[in-house]
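chain below, 154 aa
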Amino acid sequence: MKTLAFFFALVSPLFARLGESLEECKARYGEPYEVLQESSTACFNKAGLTVIIQFDKGRAAGIVFHKKKEAGETVIAPLSDTELVALLASNSGGATWVEREDLDLVKKIYDTKDESRLAIYDKIQHRLSFFTMAYLNMIEAKKEAEEAKNLNGF
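prediction:
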């Protein structure tokens, strides 16, 4: 157990966290290899991982981690259990993650006990995504408003 705690102390500074600013992410990863202004997204590579961060109101509200695809590789390698646990720990915001009892064979889904964050590990694409619930609720509200606008006049 002490070894695991020591491991998290070492790796935790490597991983972006929900709530960080772009400047904090740059300090952690260096300059992004791509910035998409229209979607407030920055993309980084570090320590063999690709990190794609979506910002809302200047703070990381969605983060996707996956292993960096090397030249000649046709698929992304899966995250190890150690990487998965470390990434969950660094993005918990101090809350406890609980794995959902879903029957989904393709994804592992986690919620924080305080229901402020959601994590999804896609077992096929080997991507671990984190979102604040506030961000997901905002996206859903925008989608519903757009759908209602499109149906106006029917």
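The radius of gyration is 17 Å. The first helix runs from residue 2 to 11.
thats it, cya
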